[in-house]
Amino acid sequence: xxxxxxxxxxxVALCLVIGLKHAWAEPLERVGPAGASPFDxxxxxxxxxxxxxxECSGLDSSLRHDDLLWAINDGGNGPFLYALGSNGHDRGSVxxxxxxxxxxxxxxxxxxxxxxxxxxxxxxxxxxRYERHTLYxxxxxxxxxxxxxxxxxxxxxxxxxxxxxxxxxxxxxxxVDPLNNEVLILTKRDDPxxxxxxxxxxxxxxxxxxxxxxxxxxxxxxxxxxxxxQPFGDFxxxxxxxxxxxxxxxxxxxxxxxxxxxxxxxxxSWATAVGAGPIVITLPLPQDDRHLVQRExxxxxxxGGSLLVSSEGKGAGIxxxxxxxxxxxxxxxxx
Length: 335
Fold this sequence. Notes:
21 strands; Neuraminidase; mainly beta
């Protein structure tokens, strides 16, 4: 091969590699408002101690007790709520009577007529074959001591059976919007993911509520060239969890890579907020921290001063991101 022709081929190959890397890089113009994250760097504050909580797919702060979290396992692990300290210390579990765990993928705590409640979302559907999904709402169980008894049971207060208005979807993100008394559901495998909403009202036996589409969330950056070199790197922009702050003005979306904070002004819709784009909340990359490999749970802390993130896997870490001291506004404490 002639040297000139060989050099030409090498040059073309380099241009293709650079072009592909540029094409897969994070398009910064798709990430919304400028500015640094309002949270300090993530710090591991504990590990999940309960050896039965191996697929943590939902996490939120207790409204009854300080330093208490509630969590759920993914599908196939039984209808149980797990109580744990903020450091991951095992504080027992409670069976949800009248519920089935087909594919539990999200959890949220909220107040309803002054009562502390927990919403459990059976919304996972990897193959997108189910037409109906179920949200279970229970009253938050009290802890009379250090941990729940082995026989602890909680009844379903009400349930919401629902379908999507267009077709079947797989979803893992769920949150209660306290300003609108609605349940928000964020799909996972759509491109872009879609945000849906449902009234926080029980459905009658045989009745199926139909969710309404709020907006696509199309401002989360796709995987970069470097992401795609890692195992399952193509999926790093998929949403795996969702939470809304107690004042209803901030929404955090967790992905397999980073988290993204959407903010709205009083009176604005979530459609307006997600259209403006998110602030990036940087997390340790999955390949850099074995305690946060498959992150699928996020929530605001009870006092609104931090975010908590956790992962699937035995002994998964619990990571805390504290609100920066110089932040002008922070989520209001849970009441």
